[in-house]
Amino acid sequence: MSPNSFDWLNKDVHLFVVIVGFICLLYLSLKYCWLCFYACKTFVYGRWRKIDLLSHYGEYVVITGATDGIGLEFAKQFAQNGHSIVALGRNESKLKNVKAMIEPLLFDGRNVITVQADLNSTDTTIYQRVAEQLRPFKDRIAILINNAGVGTGKPDEFLNISEQEILTNIHVNIIGVLMVTRAVLPFMTENRKGLIINVSSMAAYRPVPFGACYSASKKFVQYFGSAIRYEYKKYNIHVQTLYPSFVATKMAEWSTFGKADSVLTPTTYEYVKSVMGTIGRSNDTSGYWSHAIFGTLSMLLPSDLYNVIADYTKTVITIKR
Ligand SMILES: NC(=O)c1ccc[n+]([C@@H]2O[C@H](COP(=O)([O-])OP(=O)(O)OC[C@H]3O[C@@H](n4cnc5c(N)ncnc54)[C@H](OP(=O)(O)O)[C@@H]3O)[C@@H](O)[C@H]2O)c1
């Protein structure tokens, strides 16, 4: 056989490799162009031209975990937007403070109502009581923010997390979301409109070693939100899931990222202001531009590398006490 008898094959293989390479390049270019366009639409256009949530959804915004952090900031910014607020919290004296803080921000004729409910409970009658307290203004219930959540503190192996912490995680992060939604959603289906915002976490993007319980509980929130988004679309009810990375609140205090002193850690004000622009523009969003970049990059890492980085950084980003 002459040395050149496979030349035709070499040419075809060459052409094949060039075509496949071109298609891959085109796919990746289109994908990243789309991501950039989507990011601009969500974080730039959304902030510039906010949707009028008051006329779109209605008056009352029910917020769980409204006594601190992100939930308290949601209460303030929705009140300044002309909404009435229902603040759910476990601590009566913190709820009184919330009322005092929100009242001066309200528009004329608007209201702030506080509802005491400890979501770390196996007593499901608390959710019936929540529904009862909302019933007098049921036709004006517009938005539910399932925000209350707990972490398991600094990253650690699963067996080092106490039984109590595990159960609290499940009660507040999972059962609380399900049962509060179950209490509020019937009013929205009756009204034939509504918005539910579920606060998950970037920890739901992929399994987080040394944060197994929290990460899995937030994945639950993601799946639940995506499923009911489809189920209740016909009632004109929208469901958005938020996946924040670090926001400067007491939940993030264990970490060197817990203070708002870097571009990766916004204050609650900056974070919620940015989220307000994403409402109606993105069903699933981190809510903040630098979190979106961080999240996209972290998704590109192969699992083994991601796990090694998580293992290494857990000690570096944990504040030693
Ligand atoms: N901060 C972050 O870096 C970060 C990152 C990703 C996701 N998130 C998520 O964002 C959400 C808000 O967290 P945050 O950062 O604002 O934390 P936070 O400052 O600790 O606030 C959490 C809120 O949930 C309430 N809460 C806790 N346990 C409760 C219970 N058993 N019953 C009723 N309410 C309860 C708290 O009430 P008290 O005021 O009584 O404590 C507080 O109002 C959570 O779902 C969290 O998982 C936060």
From TrEMBL:
Signal peptide: none annotated. CDD domains: 17beta-HSD1_like_SDR_c. The keyword Transmembrane helix applies. PROSITE patterns: ADH_SHORT. GO terms for molecular function: oxidoreductase activity. The keyword Translocase does not apply. The chain crosses the membrane at residues 15-40. Keywords: Fatty acid biosynthesis, Fatty acid metabolism, Lipid biosynthesis, Lipid metabolism, Membrane, NADP, Oxidoreductase, Steroid biosynthesis, Transmembrane, Transmembrane helix. SUPFAM superfamilies: NAD(P)-binding Rossmann-fold domains. It comes from the Eukaryota. Pfam families: adh_short (PF00106). Pathway: Lipid metabolism; fatty acid biosynthesis. Belongs to the short-chain dehydrogenases/reductases (SDR) family. 17-beta-HSD 3 subfamily. PANTHER family: HYDROXYSTEROID DEHYDROGENASE-LIKE PROTEIN 1, VERY-LONG-CHAIN 3-OXOOACYL-COA REDUCTASE. This is Hydroxysteroid dehydrogenase-like protein 3.
